[in-house]
Amino acid sequence: MNDAAILLRSIAGDAATMTASKINPTEDQLGQIDTAAPDNTWHETPDFSNMKGQMAQRWNENKPFGKKDIRKAAGDASEAAHPESSRDPADVADAVATEQQTGQPQGIDVAAGAHAGAVQLKAAASENVSDDTKNESHEYRERTMTYLKGKMPKERREQTIWRLKKMVVEIQGHKDCTYCRCWCD
I need a labelling partner for 40 at 20 to 30 A (CA). Which of 27, 142, 179, 181 fits? Predict the structure, then answer.
C-alpha cells in the first residue's frame, strides 16, 4: 500500500507541476501588469439568458449516439441474450425474473447480450465522432500509456503483481479468513 501511495503522490506531483507551468503567466504577461488599460474602452455584458438552451443544443449536436441507437443496441443485446432471439428487452427481463423465482435456468446468455449491445453502441459512436476527435483521443491515450509506462516500468509492474499475489495467499492462509476460503474455492 505504501508503494501505491508513493506512486500516486508522484503522479499527483507531476500533474501539479504541469498545471502550474500552464497556469503561470509568461514574463511578457508579468511585464504588462503596470501598463494602464486603454481609455474609454467599454465591454458589453455577455448574454447568459439562453445559456441552458445553448448548452443543450451543443450537447445534442455532439453526443455520440441518440435514442434510436440506444433502442437498436438494446434490441441487439436482447436478441443475443434471449434463447429464442427475441428483440424485446421485456422478454429477457421476464425470463430472468422466472429464472430467479424458480431457480431453473432459462438459457439467458448475459455475456453475449452485453457484447452485442456494446458492439452496437461502439459502432454508433464511431459513426458520429469525427476523425479529428478520434485521432486526438488516440494521441491522448498514447501519451497517457507512455507516461504510465515510464512511471511503472515492466519490472515494477511484475514486482507489484507478485506482491499482491503474495498478500492474497497470506490473507487466505490466515485462520480468521474462512470467508476468503469459501469465496475463492
Answer: 27
